[in-house]
Every structure is written in structure tokens, then in C-alpha cells.
Automatic annotation (TrEMBL), chain A:
Keywords: Cell membrane, Membrane, Transmembrane, Transmembrane helix, Transport. Belongs to the ABC-2 integral membrane protein family. GO terms for cellular component: ATP-binding cassette (ABC) transporter complex. This is Transport permease protein. Its main location: membrane. PROSITE patterns: ABC_TM2. Residues 23-254 form the ABC transmembrane type-2 domain. It is a multi-pass membrane protein. The chain crosses the membrane at residues 33-52, 64-85, 105-135, 142-167, 173-195, 232-251. It comes from Pseudotabrizicola algicola. It holds the Pfam family ABC2_membrane. It is found in: Cell inner membrane; Membrane. It comes from the Bacteria. GO terms for molecular function: ABC-type transporter activity.
UniProtKB/TrEMBL annotation, chain B:
Gene3D superfamilies: YVTN repeat-like/Quinoprotein amine dehydrogenase. NCBIfam families: beta_rpt_yvtn, PQQ_ABC_repeats. The lineage of its organism: Bacteria, Pseudomonadati, Pseudomonadota, Alphaproteobacteria, Rhodobacterales. It holds the Pfam family YNCE. Residues 17-313 form the YNCE-like beta-propeller domain. Keywords: Signal. This is YVTN family beta-propeller repeat protein. Residues 1-17 form the signal peptide.
Length: 265, 321
């Protein structure tokens, strides 16, 4: 019973924050839309990109970039919701949350779930605008992409949780932008197919292949066209388990950052 | 009651199964695509550099322009065996089968003539002098007028099929490649590859009705080269292959305006409809594949790998009830 109360409370808080910070919602939407309307326009590839699975025919660059931009929303949102955890810690509201008489993993999972739901809403809004712009996907794809988006959102949220457990101050978060978000986004198949990367350097391609964000994007890309990319699904799940475990470890009062903080202070 | 049951049965059966036959210029083969599975089901060897391809009315024979073998081959489509070769004059590129199902009109690119061949006696009936580098061939639905377009003279030559003589020559834009009459026989469309236009003529007095121009956002105008085109059976829309611009244009046949451009493979040449006209198959020369367009939605759905440099396309129904 208490478990659902905690879940409801955390979801409610996230929802309040979502409603209260409408600017944040707009900002999160504007970012991928700028990429779609401006960046993709520059690389329009009016003569068509080569066929790579799951595409069955030639596509324009705008069409290619859409799943990657969904991934971008999930990535930024995952980081942002963990940023709010760092803020909570500084403000002291986290102490209240973590003293709830429930397993810590459940509390963290609730937080993760709440963040992912917000991401899904933003993805839906983004896909709707892209469809109005003329980039339409198979109708079934929109439904089938839901589990892929949710799994990827959880994975990237878990990454954020993990990072937030190791970051003590809000100011350090700028470093996360530089050292996590940008490399993850650019070293992936979000903006260019991996064979194109291999043309520049096979090593770069291998690096992209190791990046869990690449697999999240590919998972979403295949799902949008009604296909399951098992390799990508496996990689994303593994990454979710890994980041989740690390976050738990980080938030464990006996070992994690809380303890270290105590020692430091 | 029985009739109703029969009707239901007919509805349940795949009425419109068919094949698209594609000539591969560089491979000297034909790729046969099943219109249901959208896969290549057969590959058949032909003479050298096959280009134009057309079936007889009952689909029991297929005629193939083997350009570098200087002949028109006649094949049994079931076995793939060459039944006989027809005399064709040098370098036949495109041809058209007359509505009588007997005479074919062949454009001989190197000789500046149009050759008329009787497929029953296998004899040349006539050779008509036309402009330099004849290429496009068309015949009116009533079989009275044949058209040859000449690439270098930039003209459409109007041939009276009864007397085998020219009765009109009309100028079009640079390098006309393909000509076709609308189903009602009242207008003639001629595409100009370099000029980048399609000229529409009134057949009754051979005057120009209008011109269609094409422009694709982000594609250099030089690349927009209209070649093959097809009319939908309703006579409302024309699908125009735009060569190295990798697009097919959808043209409103009443207003002669372009409604949409559909992205397909590299260097699109010619097209064929599926038996139920719901799909359109485009041959993409440089990318070596065939793109399938959903006609109702006007969207490309799939590209199928075929041989090297696919050029011509023709449809054959496989199951008829």
C-alpha cells in the first residue's frame, strides 16, 4: 500500500513540475525541432540516402533523423530529471524522500518512471509536429515505438540517476553536458548511419557501436517501422541493468555518495 | 445463392496477381518481380543490351529490344525460351506494338528511320525516314497514327500508318525521349530530357496545348530530366520519371500542374503498373533497383534489387479468373 502511495506522490510531484514549468516543455521540444527544421534542411539529401535497414526504400535526411531526435529528447530529459535530483539534494528535499520507509530501489525506480513518462509525452508531441511537417511513419509504428521509447527512456534516466549520485553540486552538471550528453549524441547513429562513420574511420564506428545511445536510437528506429532490433534491445536492457545497479550503489547509504559526503564534511 | 457463393469465392481469390518484367541493360537479362511478394522470382537471359519490352495482347509472347544485338527478340514468357528474332534495323531502342497486335514500330537510333515489322510474316513492312536519333515511339489507340521522336532533331514525327508517310512534324524541347497518347486518343504527350519539359499536343490538329515544367526543391535543375511516363487508368494523373533527379512527378492531367514529387532510386527511367493499378514500379538505372510506389498514397514503399542498369518495364498478369 505504501508502495503505491510513494509512486503516486513521486508521479504527482513530477507532474506538478511538468505543468508548472511549461517553459521547460517548450524548450525540450524546440531543441529537436531546430535540428529537424534547420540542421536537417542543410543536409536535406534531396536525391535520397542509401537504403539501410529498417528502411525499404530511399529516404530524405529529415526522415532519417527523426528517431535520433526522439533519442535526443529522451537523453536530455533523462539528464534533466537527474539534475533535479542534485537540486533536491542541495535543497534537502531528497532527505525527506529517501527517509520514506520503503526500499530505496523502489523510490529510485518511481523517480525514473516519472521522468520517463514526461519524456514519452515530449516524444509524442515531437512526432506529431514532424507528421504535420510531412514526415509520416507507418501508423502502427507510432504504437510499436512506445515500448522502445519507454525502455530507452528508462535506460537514459538510469544513466542520469547514476551520474546524479556521483555529482555533489549543481555547478558540476555543466560538465555532464560536455562529457556525457554531447559525446553520446554525436558518437551515435542519431545523425548519420554507421556505415558513413566507418568511411571516416572504422574505429569511430566501433566506438559508436559501443555507445548504448546508438542502440537506443536503433531500437526506436526499427520499432517505428514495425520491426524489432533484438541486438539493440539486448544492449539497451543490459545498459539499463548496469546503470540501474550503479545508481543503487551510488545511493546506498552504506557505501554511496551520501556516506562519502558525510566523511568529507 | 450459388452465384453469390461464386462471387464471394472470386473475391477471396487473388484476382490481380502479376509480374513486372524489367530489362537490365548491362546484365543482358530480364528480372521478373512478383507483384504480391515484391521479390525477384526469375532472371532470364536475353540478347545484348535489352531496353524496350512489351507483351502481346494475350501475354503469350514478350517482345524485347536487344539494342546491341540489333534485333527484336520474341520470347515465350513461360519458358523464357527465345522463339525467334525479328528483323529490326540497327540499334533498336524503343518500340510499340500496334493495337492490331501484329505490327511493331521500332525506332532505330543509328539509322534515323522507323521500321515497321509484321510479327506474323517476320518481314519488314516499311522503313520511314525520320529525324536524327529516333527514340520515343507511340501509337494512337485507333492505330492510325504512329509517333517517333528524334533526340537530335528535337521533333515529334507524325506517321500515317496506312501510307507509312509523315504527315506532320512538331518541334519540342531538347532531346525528346518518350511519347504516349492518352487513352482517349485526343492528346499526345512528349517528354524532353534535356529541355526538362513535357509538351502536350492536340492530336486533331497537332497544335501544342501546354507544357509541363518540373522543379524539385534542393535538386539542381540540370538533373531534372523527364523520360518515361505513365497515365493512371482513370486518366486523371500522370506519373513522370525524372531521370537523375531520382524523383517521379505526379501530374494533374487536367491542369497540367505537378502535384507531388516522390523520391525513388537513382536515375529513374520507365514504369509499369501492377495488374490492379494499385502499385507502380519504376526502373532505377544507376542504383540497379526497382522502386514500388503505392499509387493511392503516392508514396514509395519499397525498393527491390534487380540486375545492373534496369531500363524497361512491362506487366504480365499471372492468375486470371
Amino acid at each position: 500500500m505504501n508502495w503505491t502511495i510513494a509512486l503516486a506522490a513521486i508521479l504527482h510531484r513530477e507532474a506538478l513540475r511538468f505543468v508548472g514549468q511549461r517553459g521547460r516543455f517548450v524548450a525540450a521540444l524546440v531543441r529537436p525541432l531546430v535540428w529537424l527544421f534547420v540542421f536537417a534542411a542543410g543536409f536535406r539529401a534531396a536525391l535520397g540516402l542509401s537504403i539501410t535497414p529498417p528502411y525499404q526504400t530511399y529516404i530524405t535526411y529529415e526522415t532519417y533523423i527523426v528517431p535520433g531526435l526522439c533519442g535526443m529528447i529522451l537523453l536530455f530529459n533523462g539528464m534533466q530529471s537527474s539534475l533535479s535530483l542534485v537540486y533536491d539534494r542541495e535543497m534537502g528535499s531528497m532527505r525527506l524522500l529517501l527517509t520514506a520507509p520503503l526500499p530505496r530501489w523502489w523510490l529510485l525506480f518511481c523517480k525514473l518512471l516519472a521522468g520517463t513518462l514526461v519524456s514519452l509525452l515530449q516524444c509524442a508531441a515531437f512526432l506529431a509536429i514532424a507528421a504535420l511537417w510531412g514526415i509520416r511513419l507507418p501508423l502502427s509504428g507510432y504504437l510499436l515505438a512506445l515500448p522502445a521509447l519507454a525502455l530507452s527512456g528508462l535506460m537514459l534516466g538510469a544513466l542520469g540517476l547514476m551520474l546524479s549520485s556521483f555529482i555533489r553540486q549543481l555547478e558540476n552538471f555543466a560538465g555532464v553536458m560536455n562529457f556525457v550528453i554531447f559525446p553520446m549524441f554525436f558518437l551515435s547513429s542519431a545523425l548519420y548511419p554507421l556505415w558513413k562513420m566507418a568511411e571516416a574511420s572504422p574505429r569511430l564506428r566501433d566506438l559508436c557501436n559501443l555507445n548504448p545511445f546508438t542502440h537506443a536510437v536503433e531500437l526506436i528506429r526499427f520499432a517505428l517501422y514495425g520491426q524489432v532490433n533484438l541486438t539493440a534491445a539486448l544492449w539497451v536492457s543490459l545498459a539499463l541493468a548496469g546503470f540501474g545497479a550503479a545508481a543503487l550503489w551510488g545511493y546506498d547509504p552504506a557505501r554511496g555518495v551520501q556516506n562519502r559526503k558525510g566523511q568529507g564534511g | 445463392m450459388k452465384r453469390l457463393a461464386l462471387l464471394l469465392l472470386t473475391v477471396a481469390l487473388p484476382l490481380h496477381a502479376g509480374e513486372i518484367w524489367v530489362t537490365n541493360e548491362k546484365d543482358d537479362t530480364i528480372s521478373v518481380i512478383d507483384t504480391d511478394t515484391l521479390e525477384v522470382v526469375r532472371t532470364i537471359p536475353t540478347g545484348e543490351r535489352p531496353r524496350g519490352i512489351t507483351f502481346s495482347k494475350d501475354f503469350s509472347r514478350v517482345y524485347i529490344c536487344a539494342s546491341d544485338s540489333d534485333t527484336v527478340q520474341v520470347m515465350d514468357p513461360d519458358t523464357g525460351a527465345i522463339l525467334f528474332d525479328l528483323p529490326s534495323g540497327e540499334d533498336p531502342e524503343q518500340f510499340v506494338l500496334a493495337p492490331d497486335d501484329r505490327h511493331i514500330y521500332i525506332a532505330n537510333e543509328d539509322d534515323a528511320v522507323t521500321t515497321v515489322v509484321d510479327t506474323q510474316t517476320r518481314q519488314v513492312v516499311a522503313q520511314i525516314n525520320v529525324g536524327i536519333e529516333p527514340e520515343g515511339m507511340a501509337i494512337s489507340p485507333d492505330g492510325k497514327i504512329a509517333i517517333t521522336t528524334s533526340e537530335t532533331t528535337n521533333m515529334a514525327h507524325w506517321i500515317d500508318t496506312a501510307s507509312h508517310s509523315l504527315f506532320a512534324n512538331t518541334l519540342v524541347d531538347s532531346r525528346p525521349r518518350h511519347a504516349e497518347f492518352t487513352a482517349d486518343g485526343t492528346t499526345l504527350w512528349v517528354s524532353s530530357e534535356i529541355g526538362g519539359t513535357i509538351t502536350v499536343f492536340n492530336v486533331a490538329d497537332q497544335t501544342e496545348i501546354g507544357k509541363i515544367r518540373f522543379a524539385i526543391t534542393g535538386v539542381n535543375a540540370d538533373l531534372v530530366q523527364p523520360v518515361g511516363f505513365k497515365f493512371n487508368p482513370e486518366g486523371t494523373k500522370a506519373f513522370v520519371a525524372l531521370g537523375p533527379s531520382n524523383h517521379v512527378a505526379v501530374v494533374n492531367m487536367q491542369s497540367l500542374s505537378v502535384e507531388k514529387y516522390i523520391l525513388v532510386g537513382r536515375r529513374v527511367w520507365h514504369m509499369a503498373f501492377s495488374p490492379d493499378n494499385s502499385q507502380l514500379f519504376t526502373t532505377n538505372g544507376v542504383s540497379g533497383d526497382v522502386t514500388v510506389i503505392d499509387v493511392a498514397r503516392e508514396e514509395a514503399v519499397k525498393s527491390i534489387k534487380v540486375g545492373r542498369f534496369p531500363w524497361g518495364a512491362a506487366m504480365r498478369p499471372t492468375k486470371s479468373n
